[in-house]
Amino acid sequence: MWVGFILAGYAVVGNDSIQTLGTFLSSNEQRPWWVLWFFAGSILTFTLVYGWFQYGGDVSYERLQVLGDDGQLRYPSPVDMPAFGWPYLLPPLVLMLLTRTGIPVSTSFLILTFFAPKGLLSMTMKSILGYALAFCVAILVWQLITRAMDRRFIANPIKPKEQRIWTVLQWSSTGFLWGQWLIQDFANIYVYLPRSITGMELALSLGVLLFMLAVIFYSKGGKIQKIVKAKTNTTDVRSATLIDFTYGMVLLFFKEFSNVPMSTTWVFLGLLAGREIAIRYRLELDAEPSDIQRAPNMHSLGIVLNVVLLGLIGYVVYLRDQVPDWIIVVMAIAMTARAVVAYYETASGELDLKGAFKNILSDLAKVSLGLGISVALVYLMKWLTGGAVG
Questions:
Q1: What is the C-alpha separation between 36 and 43, in angstroms, rounded?
Q2: pLDDT (tens digit per residue) in 69-87
Q3: What are the pLDDT digits (tens) for 312-330?
Q4: What number of other Cβ atoms are within 10 A of residue 284's Cβ?
């Protein structure tokens, strides 16, 4: 169990933590790594210990306590699984390999799936909803933010006095986001340990996670960090603050939304995708207002789609844990339509969105690869365990 926990801990922290700490690392590169580690480690410690006290030893915040249709735990403890053995080390090993190559994959799919293969569909649908919701929120919010703030951020370097104010705001938003992410992803790591751990197990596991987090900060995020740096102006502390706060709010919604584990990787990439399109779209229209006259129908359609997206976001928030699958499909279609309309509306401009689309599709292809690998590994493990898995 502990070998699986250590491998999963290293793989999850190395792959997923960049979602929450990537902009924090990028905008604080001038600071000693141990200062950043101490800040993040303190929040990790508080979140883990609080969950342990609050939920009677279950540090997953009850995300591993979901019951299946048969009334049994969907994610059983390893000690209760007769087939638990070395095959269960394959998921974190594969995740470690993909992380080393810089591929951002869903740790929820690659690890939790093997403890509850039947939960793959619900986890997939919730993750798709997470991507679509984050994308829609980002593309609406950053159209306003870019017009009011981001274009000034890009054109005007931050002043020393502003730096101090924004640094406090960014560290606060990062702390909020980091805590929300930990609540979601502790399940991916602690699935290898009993559902209720002892005080000694809590201390040992905390020490392991803090050490792994130190490695991540010392290496400045590793290869996964390149995904964050590839996006527009993510190294600016002001932009990083807005990203962290928005992402944290989306994760907070899903924390209250359902106990079903989800892929925070998909949510993060959806947020960055919507933001990237919104920034380039808004900057292009500001630089070349003639685009509106050149493609008036597309511009009008974009406004209509903005209203549709806003309505869908409100409807999902209203439904909460009763969101049907067809709403998720409609939201994904509306998200795609808004992106395509933005592309054609600014197609002839200087800030062509083609590059942004290539970047976004590349990220989406990588996480989809993780889903495909997860499904393949489920069948492999089913064969290795003689049908006990699946």
A1: 11
A2: 666 666 777 777 766 677 7
A3: 998 988 887 788 889 989 9
A4: 21
